[in-house]
Specification:
By secondary structure, the protein is mostly beta strands. The radius of gyration is 12 Å and the shape is globular.
């Protein structure tokens, strides 16, 4: 069963920032994934981005861990 927005928020916490929205008709592409909403999770310094979660409407499009060099690694979200 796909993860929904509420489940992801419970597992990862609230994002620090958000770009777009579930109702935003514009789609973008990052890390090979098309999305219309991006949740941004920042590092302990409050500036660096350590994770992004991408949504296409209500569907989870992908979660990525961002490395200091700017590369992204797909991240499986924690179970339960």
């Amino acid at each position: 069963m796909p993860l929904d927005r509420g489940t992801v928020a419970k597992r990862l916490g609230a994002p620090a920032d958000q770009v777009g929205s579930v109702n935003d008709p514009r789609t973008r592409s990052e890390h090979g994934v098309r999305f219309n909403e991006k949740w941004i999770y920042r590092g302990e310094d409050g500036e660096s981005v350590e994770r992004v979660v991408l949504w296409n409407r209500y569907d989870l499009a992908g979660a990525f861990r961002l490395r200091p060099d700017g590369t992204a690694e797909p991240e499986p979200l924690p179970e339960g």
